[in-house]
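Suppose you are handed a protein chain with no further information: no name, no annotation, nothing but its sequence. What can you learn? This example shows the usual starting point.
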Amino acid sequence: MFLKNSLIVYVTYADPTPEISEHVIETCFDAGADVVEIGLPFSDPIADGPVIQASHQRALVHRPTIDQVFQLVSRVKKKYVKPLVLMGAVNLIYHYGISKFFSEAQAHGVDGVIMPDLPVEDADDYVTASKKFQVPIIFLVSPLCRPIRLEALVKASEGFVYLISSTGTTGERETLSRPLLTLVEQIKKVKDIPVAIGFGIGTGEQVRKMHEIADGAIVGSALVRVIGGYDGNEVGLLEKVRVCVGGLR
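A reasonable first move is to predict its three-dimensional structure. Written in structure tokens, the prediction is:
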């Protein structure tokens, strides 16, 4: 799905508007992002800190739909060969229809799906649909995972493993969890799969440190905070996004 030293960035669909969020995604790619995660707006986002929670609230004003996100993916994929990953709550995908969701994801070119609240123990229906339609599910691994559960999560993951840098919610942090290299090594022993580290990464220096021990670094809140400063000037916003992603790259 991605190369070594990948920069993965997160944006919430329809923040600040559906049209502008599409331009933001394209700007992220132009500025050096290797993968973009598109968040599906939800009234009760999972594991997100106040910055990303606020982005969901801004997005929900526009009454976004999953079908709109699929259509966006199709349009962007006509211009870029870089991966687009959807990130959303299980509840959204369940109510859309598990098989229908993965079928539409395949049809529109989605490269992977992250469901932060999907327990691997209850994931059979989702994994079955994922394999049928060849759209990878990317599971999250926490520093608190016991070895048996870590093994199950890694074996179930396709595309890459999302390693949470520290416990808690999303948001920039000054320091990151120390035993990350050990966790990456444990994951690689289970399965030869790329590992990307997220939660708390918000500077170019932190991205570089994560690249020393993993295959990718994921940045969410730092970019979403920039998008949250939208004041009606789209050109100005896109330039700020370009500077932010370029600095991370």
